[in-house]
């Protein structure tokens, strides 16, 4: 419903490189800390998980909720961010 | 619970086999994905979705959302949209890809909506395509719960906005003919002020058709020219009444040439008949007819057009033609004013003008010639010379 965030646009606008996981849309410092504790410190690691789950939205969201206790909106934002990035650069 | 223990003890390969056994996607089982996959297997085995998303995610969770949105849109949206949507969907053969595309399109649509309304229309059409394609593909496959549809409410709202945009586009189509009709008469209106001479040219061409018919046909007793003229006039009035009240102000000028063009239905038939009849008649007429036509015609035409449709303009325009017509103008205006109330009354007016016209036109011609060539002066001069010669001849004693 609401427009995309500036964070989303910044991430989708360019290759992720070595961006931190907190650069992903929907991932703030809190969730970023949890993901980092789980070993997902870089955005490309989360992207790897997203690809391992074969871009399945529900699986990815469930994984996000399980790993970093993300809310539905946060998981959805992160999924959309990665999905659109893959559509653009993958 | 026994299922839980059983699944937890299974290895990664066994879990993958279980997933395939229950129709779940063959996601590679790793330490990071193991827990998620076990959850799904539990839901698949028990048949009771722990989470709404899980139950939906068995086959294609994103599809459900899009499907619902499309279902909502389908009643509002027309079937025509589906065809382009399918074609767009065909480009991406895989269902997963299609679902992803639909999601992307939605995201773009959101961006565009925030930016500008125009981009919204284009993006919305695209998103409709994706959603509808998904509907077509997945509607039979999945039977998602209504709950998912609620989650996708925002996307649906986008589709609704799309439908609204489409409806507006239809309204535009309806409006276009009106604008075209209005534009044509406006062009005529502009012509007058710019070049009065041009108006004179246009007017005499139209009028001679009426007057010559009055001379010969009235004498011969033919009613054709009158009928044709009445048809034209009547059509113009009727059409004006049919259209919006604003149109008639412009349309009256169309009655001559524009009557056939803007009013597609009935008017075109009488218009060509006029021209054909009018042209040969004008050509067969004597030189008088031609000379008379422009003078009288100009007077009649301007008051007709102006008085019928544009009252404020009446005073200025007819004066430009000639001062001789002033005597004729007041009666004509009176007739037209009476005719305004009843458009069909025009014809009798034309007849009345035609019957009176032979005498009035001859007078007008004489007056115009007097003014132009000073005939009276020359006539008096000639008569005086003749009288002088006569007196000289009579008085001279040479005889």
Structural notes for this entry:
- The complex is a heterodimer of chains A (90) and B (399).
- Chain A has 90 residues and is an all-alpha fold.
- Chain A has helices at 6-12, 29-37, 43-52, 57-68, 72-89.
- Chain A has a single domain (6-89), classed as DNA polymerase, domain 1.
- Chain A has five helices and no strands.
- The longest helix of chain A has 18 residues, at 72-89.
- Chain A starts with 5 loop residues before the first helix and ends with a helix.
- With 399 residues, chain B is mostly helical.
- Among the domains of chain B are: 1-49; 364-398.
- Helix content of chain B is 80%, strand content 0%.
- Chain B contains 19 helices and no strands.
- In chain B, helix 11 (196-220) crosses helix 15 and helix 15 (287-309) packs across helix 17 (329-341).
- The model of chain B is unreliable at 53-63, 65-298 and 310-353 (pLDDT under 50).
- Chain A: InterPro entries: BAF, BAF_prot, BAF_sf.
Note the topology.
The complex is a heterodimer of chains A (90) and B (399).
Chain A lengths: L5 H7 L16 H9 L5 H10 L4 H12 L3 H18 L1
Helix pairs in contact in A: 1-5, 4-5
Chain B lengths: L1 H8 L2 H10 L9 H16 L5 H6 L3 H16 L2 H13 L3 H21 L1 H22 L7 H6 L1 H42 L1 H25 L3 H19 L3 H9 L15 H15 L2 H23 L6 H6 L7 H13 L4 H28 L1 H21 L4
